[in-house]
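Hi all, long-time lurker, first post. I run a small reading group and we've been trying to get comfortable going from sequence to structure in the token notation. Rather than ask abstract questions, I figured I'd post a concrete chain and ask someone more experienced to write out its structure so we can walk through it together at our next meeting. Sequence below, copied exactly:
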Amino acid sequence: MTAVPFTRGNRVSTVLARKLGGELLTLRDTAGLTQPQAAEALSATAAKVAKMERGWVPFRDPDIQILCDLYGVTDPKVVERLLNLAKTDRGRRKAKGWWNQYPELRSLVEYVALEDISTGIRTWQGAFVPGLLQTPDYARALAIGNADWDDPDDIDRFVEAKIARQARLTDTSPLSLWAVVGEGALRQLVGGREVMRVQLAHLAEASRLPNVRLQVLPFLAGSHPGMTSAFSIVSFAEPGAMDVVYMDTTSSTLWLESEADAARHNATFERIARSGLALRDSTALIERIRKEL
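-- Answer (accepted) --
Happy to help. Here is the structure in token form:
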């Protein structure tokens, strides 16, 4: 899956809509009903029901009420949660966040949109410093090293957008960030020694924020469950909005949105964190590496 909002014509599939559609699909299957039967209750086509269940169209409150009645959902709390989820999704579709000014963000657009309204992020990065903790020079050196830019001005705009994300760490309702970073990421000379000295100093300073928890996974930890991939787990305050797992690779960007995937990656993250250094020891190692440079 691509991380840019899924589009077909003027239709957009969002994370929350896919979550809501998936829940309604599960309720329909549990009730033993077909898409044509659901479509008949809505006075719609089976094709429309299929689009709803895949998150391609926003949900109207009356449609949710009708489907809940059809599927035998009698718990008012369940119905209210689905309605709140639909309302949040409709509002998010209409929102025009600052990130839309930066086409240079490319596949990061939907992730940044989610990050902006999330309450917490847990991220494991073994190869580089997480974006929310990068300095401008470090972010620029990463972009240059990626060798995927035709226009140098695009790199500057990309870096500007990446740094703008960091306002979430210090705004009036700050994002809670728990980052585990591999020791290799701290020793890799991205941009050279001076860039890394400044980057490491920035990490040590950021770790003192009350909403930031920064751990280093040392080389001495040996084999660990995070060796095969990096990932971020994005959490939300909205009812029904389960954790979303984000993974970015050289060939694709993946969103994992099921309860099973969220639970598995949360468990994996906790295992990685247990292999990491304590917070104070992590800061001490960061300072030691900085001095070595």
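A couple of things your group might point at:
The first helix runs from residue 15 to 31.
The CA atoms of residues 45 and 61 lie 18 Å apart.
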